[in-house]
Amino acid sequence: MWSALLKAAACSALIAPALVHGQTAPLVNIGLFPTAVPDSFEVRVYSDAAISGTQGLLNITFTIRWNDGVGGDVDVNSISGDCIRYALTDNGDGTIVSPSPNGVGFRYFTFNVNGLTALGTTCPITTTPQPIGGFKMIGLTGCAQVNIVNDAYTSQTVPVQINKSYYLSLGGTNRTGTIYSTPLQVGAAQAPTPGSYGPLCSNGSPIVLGGSPAGGTWTGTGVTGSGPYSFNPSAGTQTLTYSVTTNGCSSSAQTTVTVNPAPSTPTISAGGPTTFCAGGSVTLTSSSATGNVWSPGGQTTQSITVSTGGTYSVTVTSNGCSATSAGTTVTVNPAPSTPTISAGGPTTFCAGGSVTLTSSSATGNVWSPGGQTTQSITVSAGGTYSV
């Protein structure tokens, strides 16, 4: 037998105790206790002080409550034990469902305990909870919490039936005490279904996590947020947990998100100047020996030779994950028009004479031989001149 009380939310006694031999009679309290059988409970009574074993337990009425929305009913059954002298019986009300403005209410079931025999000296009502009977919840389609209650609904009239408050008489005298009850879980919480993700890449953007039913919580390495929740692939492959609480009952399920490592970001090296004149070229080489795709062009070799201006990049793919280099800009300058040379006089003359040669280009000239950079030069030595 239990040696301690369940001390949770306690409801005050509804009726003042009677006097016994000029003194206040001990009150009889009631509580709900789990058993080793799933969804089964013992109802136990215990008093503030020991009560004579010769006083008959004539009547107890109490109501249990559990969450609506998961169905369920009550199977009244006896729990074996030395001190069980009374059988719980349905008071005829059956299961009552309370209304609620938001569509979520409670189910109630009222019990009567009737006995006309004194408890006897072997099973007195003491401060140690003694079982007086039991019941089992059946037909549940989900998880709920059950406890003994006196709430606002126990005194309201519903069609045909009325819910009952806790009442106890002992030896013909009212001894109604207090309900000590903490909600006890019944049924099985529906396992949630987490979303399925991956495979992802370690350099990818965070993804939003979800599950069914919605509104649960995600935990695990790489999870951030408080609804919606996100997972950052940089955390690598992780097993995440999705948990849902319904009617005070929690359940969870796990999913593994596979994250493949992204390849190293490639770099491009140039085999020469990346700025040159039309007709020139430069070789660009990726730092990755394999998995290359160049843009523009689509070449898949490690190196390419380009003669067209533009910005070139290379993407490396491995295990379904990609990384792209920074762009390398190649500039191709157009070639100038071929210059012509005009002579300011005869190009054949006697020693001591000269002639002026002029380029058709006003700028950018380099004469040969001589290296002058002016548009015109004066020459007095024979030879072949170009610009």
Describe the secondary structure blueprint for this structure:
Blueprint: E1 10-11, E2 19-20, E3 23-24, E4 28-34, E5 40-47, E6 57-67, E7 71-77, E8 88-97, E9 106-114, E10 130-140, E11 143-148, E12 167-170, E13 173-174, E14 176-180, E15 184-187, E16 193-194, E17 200-201, E18 207-209, E19 211-212, E20 217-219, E21 223-224, E22 229-231, E23 238-246, E24 249-257, E25 259-260, E26 268-270, E27 275-277, E28 282-286, E29 292-295, E30 303-306, E31 310-318, E32 321-324, E33 328-333, E34 341-343, E35 355-359, E36 376-379
Parallel strand pairs: 4-14, 17-25, 27-33
Antiparallel strand pairs: 1-14, 2-3, 4-5, 5-10, 6-9, 6-11, 6-12, 7-10, 8-9, 11-15, 12-13, 16-19, 18-22, 20-23, 21-22, 23-24, 26-28, 28-30, 29-31, 31-32, 31-33, 34-35, 35-36
Account of the protein in words:
It is a single chain. The protein has no helices and 36 strands. The chain is mainly β. The strands form 10 sheets. Strands 6, 8, 9, 11, 12, 13 and 15 form a 7-stranded antiparallel beta sheet that branches. A 6-stranded mixed beta sheet has the order 1-14-4-5-10-7, with no helix packed on it. It starts with 9 loop residues before the first strand and ends in an 8-residue tail after the last strand. Mean pLDDT is 81; it is low at 1-23.
